[in-house]
Amino acid sequence: MTKELTEQEQRILLEIARQALETRIRGQALPHIDLDTLPPSLKEQGASFVTLKKKGKLRGCVGILKASQPLACDVQERAVSAALHDHRFPDLTPDELSEIKIEVSRLTSPQPLGYDTPEELLAALRPGFDGVVLEDGIRRATFLPQVWEQLSEPEQFLNRLCQKMGASMNAWREKKLDVSVYRVEKFGE
User: Fold this and answer.
1) Which pTM was predicted?
2) In this structure, which of 89, 104, 155, 165 has its CB flanked by the most CB atoms within 10 Å?
3) Statement: 7-107 belongs to CATH 3.30.700.20
4) Residues 88-141: pLDDT tens digits?
């Protein structure tokens, strides 16, 4: 992520996400994205998470940590995945579309966080600022920086992230996990 997106660029991405929801939920093909008509920042490789909320509550959230395609295409794909492939929720229905608010998080590349002890890990985290990735072998989980709003204490944040990863809540205290952090640029409808 080189610089923040303009309001117009954010609006374009939100429109791409909304159109993707509207078409796929109704069983239609995704609209073609003509990259030649987009600003350069939306054509750059980008990683995103798309969060869907219904009446202020989470209704789906799917993303990717590593950029693999143009940001505009990534947002389109993540919007559909959040609606139809978040295993925590049933597929979004056409009746729900009018109640859904879309939030896009554009990610920086995760950077390894060096630490030696659980206390150093706690001290190195920046609540409200860092997105965090925990890895233990083949297990991996992440929380966006927005999750700090619900889990403001670093211990609680790490406990829940370990659970999400499928490990014990205290795994981060019991062994040294691979930890990376990233930032997001967040915007929504």
Assistant:
1) 0.89
2) 104
3) yes
4) 999 999 999 999 999 999 999 999 999 999 999 999 999 999 999 999 999 999
